UniProtKB/TrEMBL annotation:
<protein>
    <submittedName>
        <fullName>Spore maturation protein CgeB</fullName>
    </submittedName>
</protein>
<feature type="domain" description="Spore protein YkvP/CgeB glycosyl transferase-like">
    <location>
        <begin position="183"/>
        <end position="339"/>
    </location>
</feature>
<dbReference type="InterPro" id="IPR055259">
    <property type="entry name" value="YkvP/CgeB_Glyco_trans-like"/>
</dbReference>
<dbReference type="Pfam" id="PF13524">
    <property type="entry name" value="Glyco_trans_1_2"/>
</dbReference>
């Protein structure tokens, strides 16, 4: 019975690995901002988890100062530490946590596009969390404990709303012009020039048919507070995934199986989206019911034409995606799963340490 109780507690996220007080997580921000607002979204969700679950306590490190870190360690005794992305976090800080006996992991959010960088970032960490399912076996093959956890959405930012005519369009895409996206928009440009198109992001002047679409393009990055308005004003939001090695930092062309976090942002606005098909998409949404995917530019063109002419179907599918997103894909949902991952790691980590100590004593 005891084994069953422990397993149930792990699944429900109600067990402290030390079995004495809450699990204390030291969350370390990446040190740089992002358009996806990953750090504030995560901290907000973790604070909410702390309020609802007495088995969890959040500690945060606002600066990369070792004196401040030492004070946090001595006064609050974190059980485990997690870094978001890790690009700007000093290695010295990670090594200091290791020296103090605190397991430390990193949640990577740019796989597989930055795998060359990610491998370097991951070296000093005990464990890895990645938002891309295809990368889990790669890190494990390198001897790292690794877990899959996709990003999510903050529904206080991405939500349904009424917008003025400035934000209305037939077709909208917001994102930077990586090579695969340029290829698709160029292929569709003779058709898109006749639509009420909004295309927002950097580098779209690289289009072969740039002059054909120039009047539809806003060549800049915009904040989430504006993105959400354009999503709400569009009849169709395009979600064109990047190709897996578009910046030449994924030399083995490790594929991307998981949908991007833009998928959840669009759905949380109750907006209809046409999304590049990925292998694991159906693990998140039912194709043709919650979401509609496409495989090739011609397939995308046919589906754009069809759904522009069938507003009732668009509305029904967008509503299904919205409801499923609120149930399954918010950051509040993700951090509950994160808690189970961290508790599971601590239990396994404790067993491994005890085993090593026993073996050392026998020698």
């Amino acid at each position: 019975m005891e084994g069953k109780s422990v397993k149930l507690a792990m699944l429900t996220g109600k067990m402290n690995p030390s079995m004495g007080g809450p699990m204390r997580l030291l969350f370390i921000s990446q040190g740089i901002g992002s358009l996806a607002n990953l750090n504030p979204n995560m901290i907000t969700a973790l604070r909410g988890l702390e309020r609802e679950d007495r088995s969890f306590q959040l500690l945060s490190l606002p600066t990369f100062d070792l004196k401040r870190l030492d004070k946090v360690i001595r006064s609050q005794r974190p059980d485990i530490a997690l870094v978001m992305r890790g690009f700007a976090v000093p290695k010295l800080l990670i090594h200091y946590l290791r020296m103090k006996g605190i397991p430390v992991g990193v949640w990577l959010a740019d796989d597989p596009y930055h795998l060359m960088d990610s491998h370097k970032i991951a070296r000093p960490y005990h464990f890895i969390i990645t938002q891309e399912a295809s990368c889990v076996p790669i890190y494990r093959a390198r001897g790292k404990a690794c877990y899959f956890l996709p990003l999510g959405v903050n529904p206080s930012i991405y939500r349904p709303m009424e917008v003025n005519k400035k934000y209305e369009s037939d077709v909208c895409f917001i994102g930077n012009a990586f090579p695969g996206r340029l290829e698709i928009i160029d292929a569709l440009s003779p058709h898109l020039k006749h639509e009420r198109l909004v295309l927002i992001g950097k580098w779209w002047d690289r289009l072969k048919n740039y002059k054909l679409l120039q009047r539809h393009i806003l060549e800049e990055e915009i904040p989430p507070s504006e993105v959400v308005r354009y999503y709400n004003g569009a009849k169709i939001v395009l979600n064109i995934h990047r190709s897996c090695n578009d910046i030449q930092k994924n030399p083995r062309n490790t594929p991307a199986y998981s949908p991007n976090n833009r998928t959840f942002d669009i759905a949380a606005c109750r907006s209809f989206q046409l999304i590049t098909h990925r292998r694991d998409l159906e693990k998140f949404y039912k194709n043709g019911v919650d979401i509609v995917s496409y495989h090739k530019p011609l397939d995308l063109l046919k589906k754009m034409d069809y759904y522009l002419r069938h507003p009732d179907e668009r509305t029904a599918i967008a509503q299904n995606a919205y409801q499923r997103t609120m149930r399954e894909h918010t950051y509040d949902v993700r951090v509950r799963r994160l808690l189970v991952i961290l508790q599971n790691y601590l239990i396994n980590h404790g067993r491994s340490r005890r085993k090593k100590l026993i073996e050392k004593k026998r020698k």
